[in-house]
Automatic annotation (TrEMBL):
Organism per entry: Erythrobacter sanguineus
InterPro entries found in the cross-reference section: Acyl_CoA_acyltransferase (IPR016181), BioF2-like_GNAT_dom (IPR038740), PEP-CTERM_FemAB-rel (IPR017469)
Pfam families linked to this entry: Acetyltransf_6
Recorded superkingdom: Bacteria
Family matches, as NCBIfam families: pepcterm_femAB (TIGR03019)
Residues annotated as domain BioF2-like acetyltransferase: 160-294
Protein name per the record: FemAB-related protein, PEP-CTERM system-associated
Gene3D superfamilies: 3.40.630.30
Amino acid sequence: MNAPVRTGHEVHRLDWRDAGEVRRIEGFVAEQRASLFHSPAWLRAVEAGTGQRAAGLLSERRGVVTGWLPLTEVRSALFGKALVSSGFGVGGGICAETPEAARVLARAAETHAARGGFAGIELRGGPIPQGWDCRDDRHCGFERPLAESDEAELTAIPRKARAEVRKGLGFGHRVTIGRGPGDLAAHYACYSASVRNLGTPVFPRGLFRAMLEAFGHSSDILTVWDGETPLASVLSFYHDGAVMPFWGGGVLAARAARANERMYYELMLYARRQGMTRFDFGRSKTGSGPFAFKKNWGFAPAPLTYGAWTAPGAAPRNIDPTDAGYSRKIELWKKLPLPIANTVGPWIARGLA
């Protein structure tokens, strides 16, 4: 696709075989201080871990990059075809130097969707094009500065949540941080059990491996252990001065051991020692249990603005687990034996980008 327009911007698809062009986009993302989910490395890791194809549109003017729209081309037998910016992320959307460049990218995305038979486009952040559906009432982000010492970090947590952290510390459980096969295995054991208990299919384990490979030492796994049994584990990223606990969960025994509380507190301490200044607790569905958990930890919710375009005649894609249509399926999924959930779940979850 090559679409010159009156503004002088030219839009084309990123050629993933051209290492130099990929580096140009990585440089543009860094210059704009865009999110982790704008990085071509994120898109490639999603593709490697789930099979959902990495794509992306860039705008140029006189040979200089003026805008970038990262895209995951989602194809699912259950959830249809959609362009998502960015797949399996909580952020993304159009990153552009000017409103003109943003408009050009939006129009090019609509053309790309129509030609490829995609029913819609989802933008998780960034400017929302005129005429697209815009929502800011479904999800909130949670972020605050890290404290200057371990004790200050503990006292920064509100009293009731702080008491739970102290209980977790009292058990004296072992904590490890790493990126090896053992860390991945422990993380998958905890995370898969956690999402099954919530009634959600687990992502392919290859996605987590691909992310660690893509982001190197800007990612790791922290795990809380009871002897040789992992209780809670989280895969985190370190980006632009913030630690981002992204995929985390615990087994049923984690609740009594306050292992999740211990896990997040230990991550705060570790991140500060690595030079991070902010704790990005990620997004949560407005009014959900995780939403309340993060508020109880003293994080103020900030509404996230998402946009969507639906092709003429197509139905909007619905992957919202709180939708009434999914309630019975969720309850059934919670009852599945974990080995069955972990076998079937990744095939379904590939379409939940």
